[in-house]
Amino acid sequence: MVIVGGGPAGLAAAAELRRRQVGRVLVLEREGEPGGIPRDCHHAGFGWPDLKRMMSGPAYARGCAARARAAGAEIWTESSATRWRGARTLQVTSPHGLFDVSGRAVLLATGCRERPRAARLVPGTRPAGVLTTGALQRIVHGARERAGRRAVVVGAEHVSYSAVHTLTASGTEVAAMITDLPRHQTYGPLAWLAAGRHGIPLLAQSELTRISGKGRVDGVEVTHRTTGATQSIACDTVVFTGDWIPDHELARAGGLAMDPGTRGPRVDASYRTSVPGVFAAGNLLHGAETAGIAALEGRASAAGIARFLADGAGWGAPVVPLSVTRPLVWISPNALGLPEAAPADHPFVLRVAEFLRDETVEVRQGARILHRERFRALVPNRSIRLRGGWTRAVVADGGPVLISTASRPREGEAR
Amino acid sequence: MAAPFDVAVIGAGVVGAAVARALSAFDLRTVLIEAGPDVGTGTSKANTAILHTGFDAAPGSMEARLVARGYALMSAYAAEVGIPVEQTGACLVAWNEDEVVQLPVIEEKAAANGCRGLRRLSGDELYAMEPHLGPGARAGLLIPGEGIVCPFTAPLAMATEAVVNGVELRLDSRVTSMESDGSIHVLGCGPDPIAARYVVNAAGLQADTIEGLFGRHRFRVRPRRGELIVYDKMARRLLSHVLLPVPTKKTKGVLVAPTVFGNVLLGPTATDVDDKEDRSTTREGLEYVLAKGGRVLPALVNEEVTATYAGLRAATESSDYQIHFDPVLRYLCLGGIRSTGLSASLGIAEHAVELLAGPLPMTLKRDRKKVRMPPVGEGMVRAYEDASLIARDPEYGRIVCHCERVTAGEIRDALRSPVPARGLEGLRRRTRCLQGRCQGFYCLGGLVALVARETGRPAAAFLEALA
């Protein structure tokens, strides 16, 4: 079994596969240390969904790697899967050489990244001091440098507050946070800490419309989305946060069918992609969920992988797509390979485009309502977990499964 | 002051570097003076990276002659030193009847320029060659010789060859004054003035400023800004040729082109601006090229963007190159090299040497050192996939920039080369690091630490310089 990516999803899958005694499990990790993104998140908030404990990112990352190793998985670091050389064979570049690695099955768990400034088409000059949270955290924690003197943070979701934490803790003042939504999308205490304790204004319904400065950033222009009013903010650093995109290049290079909503590979509830023997899990499927969600997906993927390794079957069954309508933007997994009986705690995750209160999410196939689940609050850019269990009621010839909100069941285009 | 140089070349863009390289073959003392911190940091770094045949130049013009000559020389030179070049061919696409009738006119122009092998394409043939082309293409013209080239490696290769063959490279030296006694020019450029018997003006956007220092005012440089968008490698499968629009009187228009790094380039705009330093992109400019690109290749706009940038072409009042030699003044002007400089550079340099060789005696050196540039093109075997290289030195197996697959060995080499990278910007152009889709999300911290370790300088120095 070859696992590409030694972050929370890949390591959780490795540990669980070894627990199920599937034989040799190899994790390819391109960085020098396994653990993935949490390695650079030097703050609490990791471990609750999967371990029911709260811990810091680096401690969580170490734990993930230790459990995989203790279970008997091999982890090769500084080992990049650079090319497909066969259906389940990858070319690997490492200081030990250039070689091919083959598995009876392959799990892609390559994670995600934030869209940088260029991908967001923000105009202006190209000065130094424009970063993503990922780059920021590696500068501060890896290279042990201060990012700048005064920063503007684009985004107001969990990761944005993680960036604020990194900036303020390393001596950079945060001049403002900017979100195109009406309010922040994180937990109340985190937002309170930023606004109350650090006095950071949140510019809601606003967009960064220009970066200026020669050599180094000297300021940004912010435009209000409805009034069109602009303001200039002096700063020497801009941090673009969130706006995640799966690191899906290896998946696409392998010809995997992709989901247009998540921009990750399409998978069913057993984490099977469209290519036999190739599975995918974690943030590669949908951009950043918390590390714990990614780990739960990795763990959940092990059952289907173990089945496949045991009997080689699993592809060729009818696949029913799951589609969402606005204000839902995607669901993952986004297909069902029948018959499929996902347990109630199966990690289905979905996203909304706007703030919703006391809303019911409905799952239907044709005229049949398969599942209704009520949520007190649905927040954009936040993990929303939908219970499984309803999947056993899905039939192969019943048409696509549609997931929508009860108040607006047919609004917008199906994705 | 030190003994005068025989020739001072002002400007280490692709033209100045080509001239310095050409002069380095002779027993001359040559200095290459650059205002910026590195070779190729002006117009040479921000362009469309097309290797032009010169098929659409004005027949009989200096540009037509030197582009055609430069194209031939560059094709050979690229192979010799390892500059990434791919002869993809270009398809000129006509979208309406007015454009269709232009195709034979362009074909005649190409013939007049000595460019052969062009072929008219029906709509069906076009779609067979480029299946992702948007609807509505009527006809096309295939120019098989057109290609793509690495705009970073080309001037670096030339400057490196010049330096290893004895040319002195002075960076961070903006020429601000000139005094002359009739035979020796003294160029004021910072604390150490430079004396030279002959001066070559290859100052690009500042060529008119240098002209002024010599009392000449034959042209004014009015920068023409071009905004471009670079798409990620997943877009590369969408096209196989450079896709050109039918040019109008005002502009060559917005093209879509593959790059030698395996990306796709969309642009440029053409806006006259006043500020020679203003390389900012604009909302209008980016929206304009996006709209054009969406028509040519609709699937392109769903792909991820890895960079947006603006370059400034050194346009003048004239449509032709401004090449003037004053033997008495001992001054050669290579100005107004607008957008074809990368293709024409070696032709321009050859012409410059011919002009200088009249009054300036020069003999070829017996020993000339060759250079070989590291393989950064997708069409080459890159370090990360070179098994024997990795076996010899494991640093070539240690990938530090994952998007562009740049290894620690290549970073180290670029920091130690004869024209070394002095910071992350220089490394970016030499190795491709940080040019990829994540723009440093994964690798910036590690890269900064690696460079600091290699150079013994504090990490902060490199962060400040990163643009």
Quick tags:
heterodimer, A: 415 residues, alpha/beta, FAD/NAD(P)-binding domain, Immunoglobulin-like, 3 domains, 5-stranded parallel sheet, 8 helices, B: 467 residues, alpha+beta, D-Amino Acid Oxidase, Chain A, domain 2, Arc Repressor Mutant, subunit A, 8-stranded mixed sheet, 5-stranded antiparallel sheet, 21% strand
Q: How many strands, which pairing sense, and closed or not: the largest β-sheet of chain A?
A: 5 strands, parallel
Q: Largest beta sheet of chain B, briefly?
A: 8 strands, mixed
Which regions of chain B contain 5 or more consecutive residues with pLDDT less than 50? Answer: none
Q: What is the number of beta strands of chain A?
A: 26
Write the CATH fold name of the largest domain in chain B. FAD/NAD(P)-binding domain
User: SS-based structural class of chain B?
Assistant: alpha+beta
Number of helices of chain A: 8
% residues in beta strands of chain A: 25-35%
Largest interface: A-B, 54 and 55 residues
Q: What is the mean pLDDT of chain A?
A: 93
**Cα-based radius of gyration of chain A, to the nearest Å:** 22 Å
CATH architecture of the largest domain in chain A: 3-Layer(bba) Sandwich
Number of strands of chain B: 22
From the N-terminal CA to the C-terminal CA of chain B, the straight-line distance is: 36 Å
Mean pLDDT of chain B: 94
Our count of domains of chain B comes out at 3
Provide the helix percentage of chain B: 25-40%
